[in-house]
Amino acid sequence: MNILEPTLNPKKTYEYEYEGVVKIGRDMADLAESGVKLQCTFKITGVSIQTFLLQIYNMVFEEFNGIPGQSSFKASPNLTKRLTDELNRPFTFEYSKGQIGDIKTGGEVSNTIVNIVRGIVGFLHVTVKTTQRVYELNELGIHGVCHSAYAIEENAASKELYVTQIVDINDCHPKAAMYQGMALAEENKNSQQRGKNAIATVKYAYTVKSVEGGGLITKASALERHHFTPFNVKGGNCNLQATRNIVLLKETDTVGKPVTGQVKSRGNLMYKMEKSVAPIPVVMIKLNDPVSKIADLIKRLAQDNIYQLNSTSSSDVLALIQLLRASTNDDLESLWKQLSGNNEHRRWFLDTVVEVTDDRVLKFLANRFKAGDISANEAGQALLVAFNHLTAEVELVESAKEFLTIPFSKSHPLLWNTVVLSYGSLVYRACARETPCPVNTVQPLLDMANNGLAKKDDKDMVLALKALGNAGHPLSIKTIMKFLPGFSVKADSLSTWVQTVAVQSLRHLASRDPLSVQDITLTMFADRTLPTEIRMLASMILLETKPSVALISAVVELLLQEMDLQVASFTYSNLRAISRSRTPDNQHLSTACNIAVKVLAAKFGHLSYRYSKALHLDWFRDELLTGMSREFYVLRNGTSAIPTEIISKGKLYFIGRILQLTELGVRAEGLKELLTGRSEISEDFGAIDFATIMKILSDWQSFPKNKPLLSVYARVFGQEVSFLDLDLDVVQQILKSVTLTSSKENKIWNIIQHLQNGVSWHWTKPYLILETRFIQPTCLGLPVEISKYLSALTAITVNAKTVIKPTPKENLRELFNADISLQTDGFFGVAKDFFVFHGINTELFQSGAQLNSKTVMALPWKTDLKLNAKENNYELNFTPCKNTMELLSVQNALHTYGTAFCTKVEAKRVHYLKEYPLYYFLGYTHFSCQLEPVRSVNPVEKIKIQISIGPQNHKSELSQMTVTQLIQGTDTAPEPVISVRVLAISPNVKEVGYEAAAYYTPAKQRDDIELIVSEVAEEVNWKICADLSVQKIQAEAKAHFKWGAECQTYEVALKVSTAGITGPKPFVNAEINWGDVPSFMQLVKEYLPGMSYVMGFYQKHEENTEHEVSAMLVASTHEGFDVKVKIPELTVYQQEIPSPFEIVGVESDNSNIYHM
Q1: Burial (CB count <10 Å: 0-12, 13-18, 19+), residue 93
Q2: What is the pTM of this model?
């Protein structure tokens, strides 16, 4: 028989039966599942040669919640009626040679209904090649343009073709899918190669019967499977299975002319996403009358969390956000008028309205900015969150530009910084969705940078460059190059401060345009006329582009000729750190760096930590697809002990993406310039120089005029959110606010005055930390969604009052001669709610699996502090808890799974725990850490802590007792350096507790330290005696510990020697000897063999000294060290253990001194 393409006869009417089922669960016995079923009958009638009418009737909607085999689908009359009302309307579609074309229906029909229709008529869409039996192609379908594999079999007897089609839903370009909230978490291909957290495929089967003029599809089935897990699908997963079955019931001649009514194009077969995404899937709430519901909910949440943290209501924050998203612009204005008069309600509204995430929040905030009815602080907080949570669309970026021109934005420097930086962040996220990204989105920032350059205004240039760094727009490179030394004549004359910001503004472009950034940074790194700091930053950005082996080789050749040891040390240590990385993004780069380090180690491996360094630590687990890294950079210049710049940043690796965590940077070029070379300050800036440094800072005339003393910035998720430049003006303001004399500008004086009158302060902060949604269609036209939400509610209440005798009148120095008492009580609490949803989510219904996790931390306090600075006496009293207090609580619940987990750490869980990490979340778990009052005959009224520093007028019993205890053998009791008493106070009962005293006796050849702890109670003699002796000449230290009755029961001695630190193989020795010790300390001998074996140590049985443990650490190479540990009857050892730090030598020709 001939292979014929599927077709429909325009003169015929075809009646089919349809059934579509979606189930979500674990696909394991005895585990609950959730699902929906759609059943209907539909007719297809020819309107013209290529246009056909679809009519749907007998619709039935059923839902499933339970255990397969024990539960069944149940009809849902309400949803059946609602679906029937919309599906009864006429739909038309174009069809030719097995291909679905334009689909049309009334404009009032929702996209959700049209997508269901796509799932129904999609059974007709099949590509049959008349000359091939097996073939592959990319073709349009409901999931997008996806890769398909076909196989065709013939049945000559029945004149039927059996067509099988496999579609890889993960390989679609374009893909009918929507990612929301993940723009700042870049995808990483290397990580995805190690495993996936989501896999989806669909198999279609068609029976095509030979008829006049072509082939008629008489049967069609589809089996679609989705596997999802928060970790790696290889380690257990949540499954979604969708099936579709369509059978031809009858074929008849068409009678009369079909009526289609007014219809308009709704697109082709590809699933169409709603512009406004379906409601938050983890919130089930009616959205009618949102204004009254929002006002009531805010008032209730505010009241519930004033004097405590109501963790049961913390999850209502998401319900509040959902209601706000259902509000109109007029609703938001009405709510502002209702709530802004109350400070608590006003704050709750401003903290949550920013989650509306579309043009409504922009209009609301623009009205506030123009009316000036919010403070600069409120405006900054609201705009920072709103811009960073706004849906990243180019149209919204255009609307957000308005804030760059509203005068209120410039009313406060910090507010203006927030506006500009946040706009840059919005551009970055918009460009993640638009390729190429329009230049008009970043144009305002380009203009700001150029204007700052023309005016030679460092502050304007820095702000604009930081915002351009946030934006990471590929078309900003040419503008940034105007500020890079070596690329522009004007740039060469700019301050190093501006140049460093310009270099760092390339950080996002390192991944978006790596080749251009590599050319720029390598050129700067190779230019030895540039400042040291600029070259080091250039090398850091260069390595962030993930350069090739060839490019790393070029860096190596440059380093071999490098004369600046700061540049050499920084770059070499960075290469060395990356060479040890195990994270997927450094998979290839670490290999190249490893080769480079072997070439460079002989020349630069000896450089000490007085030179610039980079440190990188990381871990990654393939079975979890999860990891973390932390990087630390210290940039120095010259021989000063003050670094020029310090940077600390980290990354989180999860499900094939990389999220940059908090990054902090401090640049101290101005401070270094101010303090370096002054004769009154020692080179290493010891504590003794602090007063001198404060005196220099008060001399503001000596400050650098063209650069800040200190620059500090903070970045979150790779976006700079704030920075502070401590320049001359700021320092003068700070000095005025902390002066010792009384004045209105003195902030400390004002705080003390308020404290004497008593203060009460309360603050709450609801915050949606994370909202990520991934939505893609199933073959039924129903959307499957994977969503994650993390919200936090923080509440703080503080009450405080101080009594100062005598009361200070004119100067803060009077406090040093006063008795001060401070009473304070309050509460601090944080509740975090984490939700994961996997299932079907539409505005009509939801079905799926949901993980709820709640973490609550609560810390109430009530204390009384008394101090006298002149006499160095300090006393702290706090009241112990009267009732059980839950300090930390963690709960996990996966819907439909049973459980028990309580504070005694017991749990009942479902099956398969040992197999996969995902299943640890099944069921319900509850971990709690509680503080319970001690049940005793004499209840404790309060706990008192007394601290005395230096000589005291009254000798304690403990001090007198030290005469016979001290190793000097003196007949006079020495004065303790510090003494501490911790006492429990009960009514009508003598104080009980502990008393400790520390003594320090310095000498020329050695220093002695003595610590004695004793119990304060009647008829007790339990004590701890510890002494430490540091031998300065022999380079060793000895410690002796005795405890028990009069320090005579147990005894342990420790000796550490560093005499072997000098030499070609530097080493450190340590010994522990003991007499009688508690039995639990003897367990070391039992556990050491097993622990050392697990850690990969070698073992050797031999007779060693009894009652002794000795250890030797030998620096065998620059890269690692050897360890040998001896216990009685066993020696364990390991060689060449990699060191997280380089073991480097002092820079001299003949020195073998090494430092860790």
Answers
A1: buried
A2: 0.86
